[in-house]
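To fix ideas at the outset, we first show an illustrative case, written as a sequence plus integers encoding its fold:
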Amino acid sequence: MKYFHQLLTFFLASFLLISFVMAVPQPQKSVIISFPKDTPLNILEQAKEAVRAAGGFITHEYTIIKAFACTGPAKAFETVHELTSAYNPNIEDDQVVSIAGSS
């Protein structure tokens, strides 16, 4: 009976540890994903859906160019690149751009 309690304690502790490790949120990253102008719209929608499916969200959709800004785990952007690599997506960090010396 003592062996059973030790085994049960071990499995319970292991389960709790695994649950804790898996529950740690992945760091979020903000990027802009753009595509060449001849990319079909369904590819753009497929990329957005891949971001959402990975737990990310779309922060802005551009209309003049085929692009969108989003936030999500880095894994989401790897998936987008793999799914749409035939259309040469450009995935770059979203950041503030300024001109040095401007007033």
Q: What stands out?
A: The mean pLDDT is 83. The first helix runs from residue 2 to 23.
